[in-house]
What we know:
The chain has 362 residues and is of the alpha/beta class. 36% of the residues lie in helices and 13% in strands. It contains twelve helices and eight strands. It has an eight-stranded mixed beta sheet, with helices on both faces.
Amino acid sequence: MKGALRQAAFRPQLKRDPLGRNRVELQEGFVPNHLPRGVASLRAVSPIALLMGLAGCSQMARGDCAGTPIRPGEAMLRVADGRIWYKITGTGRGTPVILLHGGPGYSSFYLKPFEALGDDRPVVRYDQLGGGKSDRITDTTLFTIDHFVRELDSLRAHLGCQRVHLLGHSWGTILAFEYYRAHPEHVASLILGSAALDMPTWERNTRRLVGTLSDSAQRAIRVREAQGRFDAPDYQTALGEFYGRYVWRHPVQADLDSTFATASAAIYTYMQGPSEFTITGTLKRYDVTAQLATIRVPTLYTVGEFDEANPPTIRHFAELTPGAHVAVLAGAAHLTPWDAPEENLRIVRAFLRRSDSTTVRP
Length: 362
């Protein structure tokens, strides 16, 4: 999600987990115990029996995460430039999926509905450095695609997973694609929700949507952008009108509040710009449409019917991607996990199940 630019005034207090610990105080780099229950009972038997048991467990786990399942839990992981928060949900035996939220500079709250995939496979939800429950960053040299790709690889390596599915949304699709380009051997499939893979086209599409707003909203946008007064009340009202039509239609209010409260306006402004429809940041000329033909893993595109990402544009991306599938979610705007949760989940679940048994194309 690329979000509005209200500077977060505070970070809400994190809830306590069932063990009574504050989540922020979870051990840095905590890795859930990877040994299956059956292995613990082998302590009293011979070394040969122990080795046989471990080998069996490795085969059962499909070898995607160092031959061992990853247990549900949440933690703070220290990466090169700070600590990122992550949560593992589910005990399914399929290849894990890592969720990549939009922004940049926002958080994963709105991706919670995908945790329901946990009965099939581990679901890893994390907040990229700078937003959500992860550490703040202010060094603009870290506001780069390469930084976030390295951060994602640190998480994958920490979990011990050789191959994962990547589910990216909005800015998260840029991160997913760039991670695939850098580390194709670690990617089992790509799910690209409301993809932002051609930012010049994105800006043209969203500027066209501005023309569908009320006269007062269009006037406020025109005047305040000329003045550079993006915090003006009438400009914020105009943003609200745009968001209510093309970004979300059925938000989960508590998660929306948490999203705004933990956002980094600095990262968003530096990389994106002042709004969804005025792109002035470092992503302004980002366009990888010419590289989509290089994708060799199963790929699914999803988009909302009223999505600012523009369904015809997403269909075009799918046409350029070998063997890709595309799904348009009826009645949904940009945040399809909120606007069409059941249908979105059904489509993604079916795709992941198929992809678990699909080999990489030559």
